[in-house]
Design goal:
Its EC number is 2.1.2.1. Keywords: Amino-acid biosynthesis, Cytoplasm, Methyltransferase, One-carbon metabolism, Pyridoxal phosphate, Transferase. Pathway: One-carbon metabolism; tetrahydrofolate interconversion; Amino-acid biosynthesis; glycine biosynthesis; glycine from L-serine: step 1/1. With 422 residues, the chain is an alpha/beta fold. It folds into two domains: 232 residues, 3-Layer(aba) Sandwich (Aspartate Aminotransferase, domain 2), CATH 3.40.640.10; 129 residues, Aspartate Aminotransferase, domain 1 (Alpha-Beta Complex). Strand 7, helix 8 and strand 8 form a beta-alpha-beta unit. The protein has 16 helices and 15 strands.
Length: 422
């Protein structure tokens, strides 16, 4: 059953309560490999579901437009100070509702409509909000895009420099949504300085690894840093913007009143809890285990003939090109879900297929590491993935069902925050 228990929800809306309980069980029984998901602690769940959701707090600490902020102000201050201490930044804004609004605030702070901006192309691993055409950021600004080398699957920084010096963007984004390799923040910073651009580091996927010392930090290199607070950081569905002191006022004005009204105080509280958890020594151990599990899983998949973009991973994320397996990403992802393995279909660099029916799979090890799986489990997990992909091609539902049962048997021994046997 869901933990914390939801007896009032059961009494008031049994239909919805049943779906919540079913989702808790689903999360318990599946190997969750979606790179942007994780499990939060019971403390984060409790903060998210607290009476703080009742309070409206437009403005900032000490400068609100509503009364009754005696408790909300200290909560937001806790979250801000914990973010500053954990990441070693001058300034932190914890009010953005999610990652995309946080990134939009960066544009509002440092660019005007029509200005040139630069980011990694979406099919190469970038994010929609880094200037892709279907996003407002690609329609309101003049986007120029960099990619990766066809032979290595890695960013060619010489090409990035040439593009930046030719186009002179106001903002350069580094980071993305499907980047399996270490980001060279220092090199991007040097390029941004030469081009006279603001460097924005989007670390949504790797924030927890940075906090835990398992990935280099953009602090000291990037002018502004955006991140979601879930994924590897194991917090609620929210976001933060961090910056140097020089840019603090511009960032804050862009978030409020530029884009948002009142912050979600229950989320702010949950962010504060997760930041306290991330500052504990054991979180560093967790971050290192995430990276070790990803490396072990990538190696095991490679041994089974899977084509990994860039040849492997340096972080939590693995990107697989299924072209050589004769199966497309979407049917493989759906079959894997039926086999108890949850991940997502994804474009791969230079993908000849359409984005909604791409050639690849994206997976990550943050959630399974939270559950307690180790490097020793990765060869078996790779074997299940291999079997399921083959079963996809052969339309072999019996094999998918058998794998799902075996996975349920394995995971029964690994507790999940948010679920407990009745």
């Amino acid at each position: 059953m869901h933990q914390p228990a939801v007896p009032h929800l059961h009494a008031a809306d049994p239909d919805l309560a049943g779906l919540v309980e079913a989702e808790a069980r689903r999360q318990f029984e599946k190997v969750r490999l979606i790179a942007s998901e994780n499990y939060v602690s019971p403390a984060v769940l409790e903060a998210t579901g607290s009476v703080l959701t009742n309070k409206y707090s437009e403005g900032y600490t000490g400068r609100r437009y509503y009364e009754g902020q005696q408790n909300v102000d200290p909560i937001e201050t806790l979250a801000v100070e914990r973010a500053k201490a954990l990441f070693g930044v001058d300034h932190a804004n914890v009010q953005p509702y999610s990652g995309s609004p946080a990134n939009l605030a960066v544009y509002l702070a440092f660019a005007r409509p029509g200005d040139t901006v630069m980011g990694m192309a979406l099919p190469m691993g970038g994010h929609l909000t880094h200037g892709w055409s279907v996003s407002a950021t690609g329609r309101w600004f003049n986007p120029v895009r960099y990619g990766v080398r066809a032979d290595t699957g890695r960013v060619d920084l010489d090409e990035v420099r040439d593009l930046a010096l030719r186009e002179r963007p106001k903002i350069i984004w580094c980071g993305g949504t499907a980047v399996p390799r270490t980001i060279d923040f220092a090199a991007f910073a040097e390029i941004a300085r030469e081009a006279g651009a603001i460097l924005a580091a989007d670390v949504a996927h790797i924030a927890g690894l940075i906090a835990g010392g398992a990935h280099p930090s953009p602090v000291g290199h990037a002018d502004v840093i955006t991140t979601t607070t879930h994924k590897t950081l194991r917090g609620p569905r929210g976001a933060m913007i961090m910056s140097t002191a020089e840019h603090a006022t511009a960032v804050d004005k862009a978030v409020f009143p530029g884009l948002q009204g009142g912050p979600h105080n229950h989320t702010t509280a949950a962010i504060a809890v997760s930041l306290r958890e991330a500052a504990a020594p054991e979180f560093g151990d967790y971050a290192r285990r995430v990276v070790a599990n990803a490396a072990a899983l990538a190696a095991a998949l490679g041994e089974r003939g899977f084509d990994l973009v860039s040849g492997g991973t340096d972080n939590h994320l693995i990107l697989i090109d299924l072209t050589g397996k004769g199966v497309a990403g979407k049917p493989a992802a759906r079959a894997l879900d039926r086999a108890g393995i949850e991940l997502n279909h994804n474009t791969v660099p230079f993908d000849p297929r359409k984005p909604f029916d791409p050639s690849g799979l994206r997976l990550g090890t943050a959630a399974i590491t939270t559950r307690g799986l180790t490097e020793a489990h990765m060869p078996q997990l790779a074997a299940w993935i291999d079997e399921a992909v083959q079963a996809t091609a052969e339309q072999d539902e019996a094999t998918l069902g058998r794998i799902a049962a075996e996975i349920r048997g394995l995971l029964a021994d690994f507790p999940m925050p948010g679920w407990a046997a009745a």
